[in-house]
Inverse folding.
């Protein structure tokens, strides 16, 4: 992931005027959250899974926007984000956001 992120930054001059600019945002969010997750897992010896859930939420929103940039359909973008957020809200009723990876959004979007 880090190598893909570095490669995307090196080629930013090519990507900045295309819908693929969202790839850099996606990779940067993922890399930053993974760095925090590794710190908490290795240094703090914590089993917080909030980082995995944050990756799912944020990267799916970025991917929805990237998808929108390619097809330019507002209704599809709003519907996709609404379904994604609704799945997280429903999942919050059944699982702990901090200590369990949400399963409904993973099944819905993977």
């Amino acid at each position: 992931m880090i190598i893909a992120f570095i490669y995307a930054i090196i080629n930013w001059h090519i990507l900045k005027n295309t819908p693929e600019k969202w790839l850099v945002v996606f990779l940067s969010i993922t890399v930053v959250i993974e760095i925090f997750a590794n710190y908490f897992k290795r240094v703090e010896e914590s089993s917080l899974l909030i980082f995995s859930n944050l990756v799912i939420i944020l990267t799916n929103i970025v991917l929805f926007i990237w998808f929108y940039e390619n097809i330019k359909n507002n209704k599809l973008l709003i519907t996709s984000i609404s379904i994604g957020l609704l799945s997280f809200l429903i999942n919050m009723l059944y699982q702990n956001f901090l200590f369990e990876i949400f399963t409904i959004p993973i099944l819905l979007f993977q």
Q: What stands out?
A: DSSP finds six helices and no strands in the chain. The mean pLDDT is 76.
